[in-house]
Amino acid sequence: MGSDGPGEVTDCLGGAAHLAYAQAPVSGLAVITAGFSAYEARTRAQARAAALDYLHGFPHGGPEHSTTGGRELRLADFVQDPPEGGGLRVPGTGLLSGNPYHVPVEVVWLGERECRIEPTMSGVVDNGVSGGISGILAHEVVSRWWASPRHALLRVSAHLDRLLPQGVMAAATGLGLRVSGFVLSARDVRVALVIVGGDGATMAAAAGRTVKSAVSEAFLQAMAAKAEPWDTLTTADSLRRFAVWHREADYAAYLERSAVDADPRLIEEPGGLRPASWPEIAGRWFGNEPVAIEAGASGEIVKVVCPGAACYRATPAGTALPCPVP
Fold first, then answer.
1. Are 207 and 194 in contact (CB under 8 A)?
2. Residues β-bridged to residue 261
3. Closest listed residue to residue 203, CA positions, set 245, 164, 153, 257
4. pLDDT tens, N- to C-terminus, the chain (326 residues)
């Protein structure tokens, strides 16, 4: 193990990947992210810490945000049969039109609240706006497949040596980690599910333009989750994490039973075949443009919300194997 500054970046997998730690200055929340370079891991941790600080602080006091001069979104635009909301809205900006929006605070804030809308980490920005949008799309594809697995789940575990940077799989195997990968192929995107097992399992989902980019991102998220302190998670997310951690064999067996081997041509597909931007892709998926939430005076985008996406829900799913996507 080597470090790149006290409490900031640590090598893992023999230097093939890196874990970064950051602490949100106001809330004190601890954040751990992963990257294939120290710079990637550090910048993501710092961005995530800043975003979580802001999102856990809602509402920030002062008068209620004015709803003049923009489109007002309601909870019904996000949640089917929504509970009654508190009426507080926060400003947002359409990522296709640039138009102003007023967004229900219930779909923006994080942390434990007296609210019947489950907080969601989907859309939190730590890897650029594209990463926030792709996170929502990954949640969408996986959660809908989990509820109704009608589309083929593609097994890519045998190809992880080619899908991940050189040396990653050898280092993971040497440390006793079990890594499995699966892909759902959807319109405009590939969505990967990666399980990292061994002394407790974690699972993550990520969307990309190619199988390679989706698998790489899902692997990094699963590695970070193995080191992430659970006390930073919402209750619903902790329950999902707990289920995967202790029931790795059940999740792995379920995915293996559901999967078929991926066509090798899909593994090698080149990037750049789908020129549409992530906001355009989200607009086609949900019938609404994604909306960016900015952190007050700094103007930094801390979360993206997509009206119509499945990640906004009133109660956690109550299935035998809960969908692992937070």
1. no
2. 155
3. 245
4. 334 443 488 888 888 999 999 988 887 888 999 999 999 999 999 999 999 888 988 765 433 445 557 899 999 999 988 877 677 889 999 999 999 999 999 899 887 666 678 888 899 999 999 999 999 999 999 999 998 988 899 999 999 999 999 999 999 999 999 999 999 999 889 999 999 998 889 999 999 999 999 999 999 999 999 988 777 777 777 888 888 988 889 999 999 999 999 998 888 877 654 557 999 999 999 999 999 999 877 789 999 999 999 999 876 544 557 777 65
Could you tell me which residues come within 8 angstroms of residue 249 by beta carbon, excluding any fewer than 6 positions away?
A: none
Decide if 18 contacts 38 (C-beta within 8 A): yes
Specify the long-range contacts of residues 190-195, CB closer than 8 Å, at least 24 apart: 190/214, 191/137, 191/138, 191/141, 191/142, 192/138, 192/156, 192/217, 192/218, 193/142, 193/153, 193/218, 193/255, 194/218, 194/219, 194/221, 194/222, 195/222, 195/244, 195/248, 195/251, 195/252, 195/255
> Which neighbouring-strand residues pair with 182?
155, 193
Q: Are 132 and 301 in contact (CB under 8 A)?
A: yes
Which two three-digit tokens encode residue 41?
Answer: 């891991």
Q: From the CB of residue 194, how many other CB atoms can be counted at a distance below 10 Å?
A: 29
Distance separating alpha carbons of residues 306 and 283, to the nearest angstrom: 8
Decide: helix, strand or coil at residue 115.
coil
> How is residue 95 written in tokens?
């990522």
Q: CA dihedral in degrees (182, 158, 202, 249; nearest 10)?
A: 90
- Beta sheet of 30-35, edge-to-edge order: 9-12, 17-23, 30-35
- Show the tokens assigned to 86: 């508190």
> Distance between CA 311 and CA 227 in Å, rounded?
24
Dihedral Cα 251, 256, 260, 266, nearest 10 deg: 60
Q: Is there a contact between 211 and 262 (Cβ–Cβ < 8 Å)?
A: yes
The predicted model scores a pTM of: 0.90
